[in-house]
Amino acid sequence: MQKAEFEITIEIIVQDLVSLVMQNEAIEFMDALPYLYDSELYSALTDEETKLWHLSTEKLYDMLKNEKQNNKLEYPDFV
Fold first, then answer.
1. Cα–Cα distance measured from residue 23 to residue 65, given in angstroms and rounded to the nearest whole number
2. What is the pLDDT tens value at each position of the chain, 79 positions in all?
3. Most CB atoms closer than 10 Å: which of 8, 28, 38, 65?
4. How far is 79 from 68, CA to CA, in rounded Å?
């Protein structure tokens, strides 16, 4: 995947993920951004080699929620 294509893909995923965080955590946009950006998931998501960008937004949100609860990012078996 070209770098520009990857960056656009990540932007779309992040927009959807922030929306899910806002809905499910009942927080405002300005609180949802650091909730995501300060996570290990975000760091891994922005690394094309992890292939996390292939996962659905819902699965990524589940991983984020799990990371926040357990202070550890756990990858699904199929990644």
1. 13
2. 799 999 999 999 999 999 999 999 999 999 999 999 999 999 999 999 999 999 999 999 999 999 999 999 999 887 5
3. 65
4. 20
* Length of the chain measured in residues: 79
Of the candidates 51, 41, 49, 53, the one whose C-alpha atom is nearest the C-alpha of residue 9 is 53
Alpha carbon distance 21, 2 (integer Å): 28
Q: Say how far apart CA 42 and CA 37 lie, in whole Å.
A: 6
Token reading at 64: 């984020």
What does the buried/exposed string (b/e) look like for 37-70 if buried means 16 or more CB atoms within 10 Å of the residue's CB? eebebbebbbeeeeebbebebeebbebbeebbee
Nearest 5°: the CA angle 33, 37, 42 is 130
What is residue 55's DSSP assignment? S
